[in-house]
Amino acid sequence: MQIKFPFDLSKPVVGEASIEINKPVHDVFSYIGEHFFDNYPKWSVEVVEFEPLDGKEVFIGAKAKQVRKDNGAEVESVFEITDYQPSIKLIFKGLTEPYQHSYLLESSEQKQPTRLTFRFELLELEVFMRPFEKLIRSAIEEGAENTVENIKNLIAVEGG
């Protein structure tokens, strides 16, 4: 007999936020994409340790190891860049943990502002965590909002 759950175990838990940054799309992507390995720990403040595993060049297949402090617990993971299109998007996916980060950029020609959308997907949620899905989604959405705000503020201060 198969146990039926009142929820879909394969459905990711997603949080997404967008923000307008008053810089050309190339400048925003330079900060997020081209200089990802230098700048990611700045905007992702939960990261307490970060190590690019293939040098600092950003390319599809480049890996990094991170230790994040989430709610007091340290979680180590290795991720890999799975999509890299200059001035359009940067996506990386956890290899040792089931998550995906997407940074998507939109702009009309070379005009300002640039619209940055950040999406975090928790690709799997363990059965015992499913009753807390709404709480987890809320935390992910808040984290996504914080991420785009942090990036916007850092680009303003550092001149992106």
Molecular structure report:
28% of the residues lie in helices and 37% in strands. It has 160 residues and is an alpha+beta fold. Helix 1 crosses helix 2.
Reading the helices and strands in chain order gives EHHEEEEEEH
Quaternary state of the chains: single chain
Average predicted local confidence, pLDDT: 90
Query: Terminal Cα separation, in Å?
Result: 57 Å
Return Rg in Å.
16 Å
Proportion in β-strands: 35-45%
Which structural class fits the helix and strand makeup?
alpha+beta
Please count the beta strands (DSSP E, at least 2 residues each). Answer: 7
Which regions have little confidence, pLDDT < 50, spanning 5+ residues? none
Shape: globular
Strand neighbour order, sheet with most strands: 1-7-6-5-4-3-2
Estimated helix fraction: 25-40%
User: DSSP helix count?
Assistant: 3
Major beta-sheet overview: 7 strands, antiparallel
Keywords, please?
single chain; 160 residues; alpha+beta; seven-stranded antiparallel beta sheet; 3 helices; 7 strands; 37% strand; globular
List the helices and strands and how they pair.
Elements: E1 13-21, H1 25-34, H2 36-43, E2 47-52, E3 63-70, E4 73-85, E5 89-94, E6 99-106, E7 114-122, H3 133-158
Antiparallel strand pairs: 1-7, 2-3, 3-4, 4-5, 5-6, 6-7
In short:
This protein has 160 residues and is an alpha+beta fold.
